[in-house]
Write a structure and sequence with these properties.
4-stranded antiparallel β-sheet, 5-stranded antiparallel β-sheet
């Protein structure tokens, strides 16, 4: 009888242990199933968002080109459709998480401009009041409090430009790669805009069409330009088998001075741009440059990557730090291109560009919250190949659940 009782107790113990092991395994499987389902929902939301962003122009459809209130968010170019993004809508996105990227103009006016590229000199300074911030876009997408997201837009082709010394004149090397591999036989439309000082800052353009060698490289020499002291901007547009890219390089002859001129986008509806004396925009410790003469030219970027010059109002005048510290001009709202401003003071010459449409200089916008996806275990990403201003880009939309 005692032996039977012991056997019974052992059997019960084994049964309970087996049940506990089974329950623990079931709980683990159940937790994995819940996590898998949650991650699947995040992945599906990433697909939904990238399609909404890339395949819808938003509402109104031309919100990137106007000052109208945005009722629906999307970045598709309404004039082209498909996976073509608007070059103007991207200019109205603000990822500013602190005041370091903001420019106040006029000083103490309370009017702030957002620096899209965070690089003073060659940047798109747009009115902050006309920009959409992260919270605005999250509300328009209907994901506030449920999902976080980021939008990363980068050129598909990598076009790097470097100066090569030792030729006694300017020599620039262009390297073109795609997915880390050199692209041989790529066609390059290249432009060099030299700034000369002949009583005023005058632009001398150089244009050519070339191809990369078997290493994806090209060396360009400019006999009449000094490799150290001359001021210029160099722009190259690359095309190969339906892929397009852009590279950009510049040099000024300003000594230790910062940029003298700052362009700011004032109004989207009519393309108004403020051309301002830099000492009225930024605070410097040095004595202000008293007077700067400038010449402004707008180059329209055509579909075959030609730059066509367009005359502007108030394209040439003198600015100072006092009574005449800015002028306004108007860019064509129906065209993408580059506003090129050359300037001179006391034999110092320089230049600054404002890309009218982000693709014209291959700008890579990034749009997210201040913290991004840091601290979240699962982040779903979706990639799409698009074009902006005819330039090939890759859009990466990342999504994560805010509920853990």
């Amino acid at each position: 009888m005692t032996g039977a009782t012991i056997d019974h107790m052992i059997s019960v113990t084994i049964l309970i242990s087996a049940l506990l092991v089974a329950m623990m395994a079931f709980n683990g499987l159940f937790a994995s199933a819940i996590e898998y389902d949650r991650n699947r929902q995040v992945a599906n939301k990433a697909v939904d968002l990238v399609n909404s962003i890339c395949l819808s122009p938003g509402s109104p459809v031309d919100w990137g080109e106007t000052n109208d209130t945005v009722l629906g968010f999307g970045l598709q170019d309404p004039d082209s459709g498909g996976y073509t993004l608007s070059p103007y809508s991207m200019m109205r996105l603000s990822s500013v998480s602190s005041g370091t990227q903001l420019v106040e103009y006029p000083p103490d006016s309370g009017v702030f401009y957002n620096n899209i590229t965070a690089n003073f000199g060659d940047a798109i300074l747009t009115p902050l009041g006309g920009c959409l911030n992260y919270s605005d876009v999250a509300d328009l997408l209907g994901i506030t409090g449920d999902y976080g997201f980021s939008i990363d837009v980068e050129p598909t082709l990598n076009v790097s430009i470097s100066k090569v010394y030792g030729y006694g004149h300017l020599a620039l090397k262009v390297d073109v790669t795609g997915s880390g591999l050199p692209l041989s036989g790529a066609t390059l439309n290249h432009y060099l805009l030299q700034v000369t000082n002949e009583g005023s800052a005058t632009v001398v353009p150089y244009f050519g069409v070339s191809q990369t060698d078997s290493f994806g490289s090209l060396l360009l020499e400019y006999d009449g330009i000094d490799e150290v002291n001359d001021a210029y901007h160099f722009i190259v547009y690359v095309s190969l088998n339906g892929l397009t890219g852009v590279g950009y390089y510049s040099q000024d002859d300003l000594g230790d001075y910062p940029q003298f001129i700052v362009p700011l986008v004032s109004d989207y509806d009519d393309g108004t741009v403020i051309i301002a004396h830099s000492w009225g925009v930024h605070e410097y410790a040095e004595t202000p440059v008293p007077a700067v003469t400038f010449n402004a030219t707008f180059f329209v970027l055509t579909s075959d990557f030609q730059l066509q010059q367009l005359e502007l109002v108030n394209s040439s005048t003198l600015l100072n730090y006092g009574s005449k510290n800015y002028v306004t001009t108007t860019l064509p709202t129906s065209e993408v291109g580059i506003l090129f401003i050359s300037y001179e003071w006391n034999n110092y010459v320089g230049s600054v560009v404002l890309p009218w449409g982000i693709g014209t200089l291959g700008i890579s916008p990034y749009f997210s919250s201040s913290t991004g996806s840091a601290g979240y275990d699962f982040v779903a990403t979706e990639l799409r190949q698009v074009t902006i201003d005819g330039i090939s880009y890759q859009v990466k939309v990342s999504v994560w659940s805010l509920s853990g």
